[in-house]
Amino acid sequence: MQILTLTSDTGLQDYYIASLKGAILKAIKEVQIVDISHSIKPFDVASAAFQMQCCYKDFPDGTIHLIGVDSEPLIQPPEYSDATTFVSSYPTIMKFHNQYFISNDNGFFGAFLDDKDPQELWRYTVDKTNASELKYPMKNCFLHLAKRIMDEEPLSQFTEAVNKYKKALIPKAVIEEFIVRGIVIHVDSFGNLITNISKADFERLPKDAPYEIKFANEKYYIDHISETYNSVQQGERVALFNENNLLEIAINRGARQSTGGADILFGMKQGDRLRIESSPAGSRKTLLF
Length: 289
What we know:
The chain is an alpha+beta fold. The protein has helices at 16-27, 45-53, 108-113, 137-150, 199-202, 262-266, and strands spanning 2-8, 31-37, 64-68, 91-96, 99-104, 120-123, 160-161, 174-175, 179-187, 193-198, 211-215, 220-222, 225-226, 237-241, 246-251, 273-278. The chain folds into two domains: 2-161, 3-Layer(aba) Sandwich (Rossmann fold); 174-286, Elongation Factor Tu (Ef-tu), domain 3, CATH 2.40.30.90. The model has no long low-confidence stretch (mean pLDDT 91).
């Protein structure tokens, strides 16, 4: 059975996703629909890329992902042909990891790929006489592209092969001799603070040296990275590397809907800074505050 995933910035309070799913069920007889997230901040393609980075490997070959974040194509009028500030963005199909990703070329592909290369990249030119494709493109354009892939229609028959794509920025951690500086790149529904500091970044610090993770403008710190949330007592702060090997700051059994998550209790949000500061013997005088 064909798997089709949905990621959008539309939220669930309106009819949009129900309308999309109805159109999918009408167009495709046998399909498994998987919602990745519909709570992406409007137009935040970097957050959409982060969500997809965290889960695409769990899907089988042939999965088709529809990414409807900042999804309306931007078609450059002829009078702007020489302008540098008006850059077109077209619906694009990327094949990567033997899966298909359909999105507007608005920076999503560059943020998702980082330093990797796609297997294939194809651009779909919207028919300007068919204005319906520009209205709710996730349903009226991306879905139809997905259906043509499912029907095994060669991509070369309805798209053009390209080798360039736009890049949205997912900031990377900054590594110094005894310090790793990072930011919060996502706050999950529990209020856990997911950062851009990877386990590999942390392992570049001197091995076996004492360290502190400082955050919330250095009002708080943690001096040990745990394996699980329950490694500390309920209500205690905890740092761990999650299943995607990204550093996470949390409150064990804390959540926004109950006692409060780390975001509320520490007063932190997406984009806030933190750092890991290592203190090998004789190094304290070299650390900058």
